[in-house]
Every structure is written in C-alpha cells, then in structure tokens.
Amino acid sequence: MVSILTAILVLSLLVLVHELGHFAAARRLGVGVVKFSIGMGPRVWGFVRGGTEYVISAFPLGGFVKMVGEHDHEDEPDAAIDPMLTPQPDPALSFENKPVWARMIIVVAGPFANVLFAVLVFWFVFMAGVPMLLPEIGTVQPNYPAADAGLRPGDVITAIDARPIATWEDLTAVVHTSGGVERVFTIRRADETLTLRITPRVSPSNTVFGEATTVGLVGITPAERFLTKRYGPLEAAGLSVARTGEIMRMTLVGIAKIFQRVVPANTIGGPIMIVQMAGQQAQAGAMNLIFFSAFLSISLGLFNLFPIPVLDGGQVWFLLAEALRGRPLSRRVKEITQQVGLGLLLLLMVFAFYNDITRVVTGH
Fold first, then answer.
1. What is the full DSSP assignment across 171-238?
2. Domain 131-229 adopts which CATH fold?
3. Which of the residues are catalytic?
C-alpha cells in the first residue's frame, strides 16, 4: 500500500509539473485555458477562477489542459452549434488562432517543464549534499593486482599518477580505463604514505545496456564509508544540467538499443514496475526517492516527445506539417492518425503490463 501511495504521489506531482508547463506557456502567449485537470475521468473536486476550471479527477495517472479553441465541438456537427445558446469564446484567446511558433512553444512546454523540474531537483540535491564513498579499501581479493602489490583493508588511495582521488567514483573512473596500463598509486596507511605500482587487470564486463566490454580491475571493494559533498549554487547548477543531460542521453540510447535488440524488450515496464520502484526508493530514503522522481520526470518528458499523434511529439509534427504546407492538416487526417497513435499506445501499455505481471509471477 505504501508503494502504491508513493507512486501515485510521485506521478501526480510529475503530471502536475507537465500540465503546468502547458498552462503557463498558454497564459503567457495569450491563450485562454478552459480546464486544468490533474487526473482523468469523473470530476472529484474543483473550482473556477479567472475563467479556468481547476479539477482533480478520479484517476490520478494522467491529466490535461484544455485551451480555448482546442478540439471545440469535435463530437458535434457544425449545424448543431447554436451561437445564441452556446457562448462563443473570444477568438483572440483561441489556441488554433495563434501562429505556429506560439502553438509549438505551448506544446513543447509540458515536456520542457518535466526536464526543468529534474534540473531543479538535482540543483537542490547538489547544494544540500551528495553522499559519496570514500576511496578507502574494505576488502582485497586474492590473486588480483591489488593483493599482489600489497594493498590492505583500511588503506586509503589518495592519488593515482599524481591525480588526486577524493571519492571511490574518482578511483573507479581511473582504474576502469587503465586495463593493462601501469599506474602509480599513492596510499595512506595509518600515519605513513606509500607509493605502489599497480597494473589493473583487463577483465570482461558489461555496459549498463548489457553489452560485452572490458574494464580494468585491481580487486578491491570499498569500506562503505561516506562523505557528504556540498556544492555552491553556481557549481550545483552546472552539475544539475550535466546530470540531467546525461540521463536524457542514456535514456535515448537505451530506447535505441531496444529497437536494435541489444536491450531485451522485456525491460520495458509499466505502472506496476513504477509502483515497485517507488516503494523501493522510498524505503531506501528520501534522497533516493527524490532522485527517482527526477529520473521519472525526465522519462515522462522524453516519452511525451515521441512522434505519436496523441502525445505532444505528435502535435509537434502536425505543426511542422502545417508550417511547411502553409495550412493545417484536415481534421479527418488528424483523427485517423490520432486513432492509430492511440492504438500504438494501448499496445505498448498492454506489453508493459505483460512484462510487469511476468516479473511479479517469476520473481525476476
């Protein structure tokens, strides 16, 4: 139950961020907003302010912003619209009457808000302090270069080839790229400083996507001692942008590798997987849950930019086609492509649910 509630809260927050992006851009560019809904389905609670109805709906996994002129009277024949009975909105506030560039900004603002949210989360985390493993040795594996060179548990590696080593991450960054290359390790042992020459062994490994590769290993594990590293506002801002960009890159590479069949399709997960991961991160601590929320926000933003008609990315392609043709696509073309897009999303959802259920049943 805790996992489910955590997942609902996280997803609701990210949907709110996404829709706020659309909402803020629409208001800024002079487009009226008829309805702002967090969740889908029947209205549970809401109020009207400034001509906009703000609603919380029954099903929390979703949300939308309905703008003036957007899909007006889609389900009604034009002849059925009586201007005497149905108040007509101000055409100047209509989404459809805005230039293509303005509509493009409004459409992209949702995914952009999700990415910006991740940047702000990472910025806060870097300033609050990031726990990092110290480069202190916990265990030394026999028959590996570290053991052969005389490294011991409790030794602290302070430099490699005169390059300062402050964290275990610094250490692995050098060792993993030094297979077969002799390095000079500076070691602090009790009150003395030692210099040892160690050549990391070339060892088989796998990338995060499961591809075979090799890394350098010396045969040591960390002592699980941490330091909390805090950054100033400017440095934290740079690191947060870099971290967000790296996650975006890795996400897109991972998607490409699924199509290349390098990454198995059964790694695709749905709501059940999100619930499980949210629960695990919540149990691991608030910082883990915050990182998970930022990662999920980036995923949500990128997913919405997929060129599927019912997503923001599909709307971008509609607008690009309109800009090239000098006129919008016909309503019929949009309806057909949106139906195809909805079908693709439903198939993806079914496949994700199948993977989720399979993982639960098999325990993998």
1. HHHHHTT-TT--EEEEEEETTEEEEEEE-PEEEEEE-TTS-EEEEEE-SEEE---EEEE---HHHHHH
2. Pdz3 Domain (2.30.42)
3. 19
